[in-house]
Please model this.
Amino acid sequence: MPTPSQRGLASPSSPIRKLVPFADAARARGTRVLHLNIGQPDIETPEPMLDAVRAYSERVVAYGPSGGDAPLRETLLAYYRALGHALRPQDLIVTTGGSEAVFFALAACLDAGDEIAIPDPMYANYLGYATLLGITVRPIPTRVEDGYHLPEGLEAFVGPRTRAVLLCNPSNPTGVVYTDAEMARVVALCAERDLFLIADEVYREFVYEGALPRSVLSYPELGDRAVVVDSLSKRYSLCGARVGCLVSRHAGVMQSAMKFAQARLSPPALAQVAAARASALPADFFDGARDEYRKRRDTVFEGLRRIPGAVALRPEGAFYQMARLPIDDGDRFVTWCLEHFEEEGTTVMVAPGAGFYAEPGRGNDEVRIAYVLNCDDLALAMRLLASALAKYPRAA
Ligand SMILES: Cc1ncc(COP(=O)(O)O)c(C=O)c1O
Model:
């Protein structure tokens, strides 16, 4: 019997999805599961986008250009123009979700054996893609007590094989929004040490205090070293459509990414028809969603403050809260909640923290909470979490 690759065996399981079978079993027993484990917003997809799919009248759902269909490309270039970034057509490739943009960015900027420095904890799929590509992740450790802001002395995380820094801003899983001063430090480091700065900006509009974070595309000091991963999934509640994009002014990176794009033929046709209708949405489209998420964030944070032993700072952006809880092992706690805990016929599912860390041994007492439910359900979920923690049998 042939054995599968070492690469596959070494790949981490998604901390967001791996315990889902326990949630399925709970539901099969008749228990309602409040899902705070996955960043699937409950906000409705904008009507013009759904209408565009309903009105689709082509007789053949055909392949399109590898870099994306013209109407969506125009919509995206106009979106970036409105943010102040003048892009040339060759600076943008439509991807099958932001996930593919992560993959293309890593594959186009780094070789197997190269290193990338990433604040730890991080979006777990960076670890999955890095493993797939033979790239070593060098974690930049951050702590809940500092709200997961960056440590001093970033130079210490750059070695001879380091080719890039990857930031998620605003961050999944931590909710951090990097300050101008932090960004200036990272930009200076990348310029001095000639590193790519890959920025995952898929939560760009989801900030709850102050101005939108400045995109890495706007730092002249970076030259062409800026590479942006973007997605329409969260911005327009289009997660299942699978539309994102890769943006960079670096000709070599974009030429390589286009070869990868050609190898996978084209991004999804129907989804692009829907996504192109972003151009029909009003300029204040994000305001309502932002207000709603701010309330949700506050509901979760207040709930955490009432839990004895919980440590958390109020997140500044995205729709995630990481917290340290009085638990020994997040996987065990989440599994126990799904198998043994319910009140009012309901249980709660959060994502165990360890899977978001590159550094072994970290995050066992942390969880990630996605505040993607309405405030009433979130308030119930936080009460249940407190109750579950009070009843949870800790290892002797
Ligand atoms: C930080 C971050 N980057 C990328 C993605 C991938 O998004 P997409 O659904 O567009 O593949 C996600 C999805 O949760 C995310 O949170």
